[in-house]
Amino acid sequence: MLNSEDRQLVEKFWERYVYGFIFGDLTRSARCGRANFLVALGLMCYTDYFGKLMTGKQDPHRNFCSFLKEYLPAYSMQREMIYKEVRCGLVHEYFPVNLEVIGRKRVPLVPPSIWQESGRWKIAVDDFIEDLKEAANKFKQDLLNGVHFSEFKKVVEKNPGLNRIL
Fold first, then answer.
1. Which of 40, 50, 102, 119 is 20–30 Å from 149 (CA)?
2. What is the pTM of this model?
3. Where are the alpha helices (DSSP H) in 13-161?
């Protein structure tokens, strides 16, 4: 169990950074700006970042796959392909050949909101925002219960820019 100072660190981080910046920016960009590719790129990078907070490591592949496995199990079976083709495609190519980014709603209306159809990857960004938000909330609860907290704290303490936020 965390002491009150550590609980406050998690709560402030989620309030200001996760809900304020990450999901605030993603939601505004998706709904107001219709910046689907930029939002998809952000979603992939933030999945890496949550994984980094979870593992404490500077290893995007491990972080991304670990976070999917633990907090987004609907994506877990294809996590390696999602990392390689979707995440790396967006990060390194921006317009990957085999990717179609759509604003919203996937069919069927159940996870995952990243799927393959006729050999092409599709992402329903509005839906994946919600999936990632739910995963982040589960991760926050684990942190408050002491799970992955030492790794989280290590990452936060190594980033001097977060001092201005927290």
1. 40
2. 0.92
3. 24-31, 36-55, 60-71, 73-76, 79-81, 88-92, 125-144, 149-158
* 3-class secondary-structure state, position 99: strand
Residue 107's SS3 state is coil
Side-chain-facing half-sphere of 99: CA atoms under 13 Å = 24
Contacts of residue 26, defined as CB under 8 A and 6 or more positions apart, other chains included, come to 39, 42, 43, 46, 129
CA angle, corner 109, sides to 108 and 113, nearest 5? 90
Short-list 94, 99, 136, 124, CA closest to 30: 124
Contact 45, 66 (CB under 8 A): no
Token representation of residue 17: 């950074």
Q: How far apart are CA 65 and CA 157, in angstroms?
A: 23
pLDDT bracket for residue 43 (50, 70, 90): very high
